[in-house]
């Protein structure tokens, strides 16, 4: 009996190892077939989206299926969406953009592209310092255009981030139309954690609606073409109501009254009315001009500003007062250093 037991034992151990290996493979297969990995094309919500693209836009079903089959969930995208830079207090956010390096590079960018910037100003009414600052804030003047695969990023947000799913399904639709129209490669393009593209970081819908062929070479290229990027930023601002020569923002004094969080981002109250609420501009502004109070958190105190119409236009690029203020202050620093 002892000999029989010893002769069986190695076989038993081998079988046990084989079973363990099989279980491991099964678990791995289940994990990687879920919605966070390759296999988006098997999901009902993705299938519905594919059907919509085929029926509405005559898109190639097999092509879409192959792209979704390869798509990989971008966990870093979700982490960035949950904690954007705009959630920082102003004194930390400002330090990201208001640096000597970014200001000096802005002066260099302006000098290198002076004629194009002046032509954009003449055509669209948007001054060179604002266009320069936008591209400076977005991509450090075209140097950092993003490292996230755009198709995977938009797919992740559209189907695995419920808070923004509705908007980003539309952006994914716009992206697919964009790459077909501009003859771009869906799977090689990289951008921001939210799928923004090129030197000015346009989302796909903005690219389709506001990009211009500013050098008249027959193509709207925001990925590599600085001339098109400059013209497109200017066109974006003009289409959103930029008023050439108008003020953007002024510092303010705050005595008491409504909480600043109660004011909408869009200016809806006149300067004279805001003064009744305890908010006063620190320099002369037309009493009938519309403005909205802005509160910025410094390390040891609150700073108060009044955002005018053009300030609100900057927020149409990124819906954040912190962002618009960073663009404004960078633009003024670059302009001052140009002098």
Account of the protein in words:
By secondary structure, the protein is an alpha+beta fold. It folds into three domains: 41-70; 71-242, no CATH class; 249-338, Orthogonal Bundle (Lysozyme), CATH 1.10.530. 55% of the residues lie in helices and 9% in strands. The protein has 15 helices and seven strands. It has helices spanning 2-32, 44-57, 61-70, 75-82, 90-97, 100-112, 114-124, 128-139, 150-160, 165-182, 204-210, 226-239, 271-276, 309-315, 321-338, and strands at 148-149, 190-191, 249-254, 269-270, 279-281, 290-297, 302-307. The strands form two sheets. The chain has a five-stranded antiparallel sheet with strand order 4-6-7-3-5. A two-stranded antiparallel sheet has the order 1-2. Strand 6 (290-297) and strand 7 (302-307) form a beta hairpin. Helix 7 (114-124) runs parallel beside helix 12. Residues 1-12 and 24-38 have low confidence and may be disordered.
Task: Record keyword descriptors for this entry.
339 residues, 3 domains, 5-stranded antiparallel sheet, two-stranded antiparallel ribbon, globular, alpha+beta
């Amino acid at each position: 009996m002892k000999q029989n037991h010893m002769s069986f034992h190695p076989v038993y151990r081998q079988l046990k190892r084989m079973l363990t290996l099989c279980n491991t493979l099964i678990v791995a297969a289940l994990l990687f077939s879920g919605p966070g990995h390759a296999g988006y094309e098997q999901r009902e919500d993705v299938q519905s989206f594919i059907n919509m693209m085929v029926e509405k836009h005559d898109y190639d079903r097999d092509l879409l299926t192959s792209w979704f089959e390869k798509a990989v969930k971008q966990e870093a995208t979700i982490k960035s969406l949950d904690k954007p830079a705009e959630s920082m207090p102003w004194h930390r956010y400002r330090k990201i953009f208001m640096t000597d390096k970014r200001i000096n590079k802005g002066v260099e960018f302006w000098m290198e592209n002076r004629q194009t910037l002046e032509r954009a100003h003449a055509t669209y009414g948007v001054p060179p310092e604002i266009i320069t600052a936008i591209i400076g804030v977005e991509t450090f003047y075209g140097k950092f255009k993003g490292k996230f695969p755009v198709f995977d990023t938009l797919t992740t947000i559209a189907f695995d981030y419920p808070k923004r799913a509705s908007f980003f399904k539309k952006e994914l639709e716009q992206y697919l139309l964009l790459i077909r129209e501009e003859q771009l490669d869906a799977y090689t393009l990289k951008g921001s954690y939210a799928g923004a593209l090129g030197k000015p970081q346009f989302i796909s819908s903005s690219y389709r609606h506001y990009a211009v062929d500013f050098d008249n070479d027959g193509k709207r290229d925001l990925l590599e073409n600085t001339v098109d990027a400059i013209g497109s930023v200017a066109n974006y601002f003009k289409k959103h109501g930029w008023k050439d020569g108008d003020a953007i923002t002024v510092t303010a004094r705050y005595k008491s009254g409504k909480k600043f969080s109660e004011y909408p981002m869009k200016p809806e109250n006149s300067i004279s009315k805001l003064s009744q609420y305890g908010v006063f501009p620190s320099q002369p502004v037309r009493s009938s001009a519309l403005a909205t109070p802005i509160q910025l958190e410094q390390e040891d105190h609150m700073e108060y500003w009044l955002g005018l119409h053009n300030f609100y236009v900057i927020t149409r690029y990124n819906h954040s007062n912190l962002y618009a203020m960073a663009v404004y202050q960078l633009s003024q620093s670059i302009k001052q250093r140009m002098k």
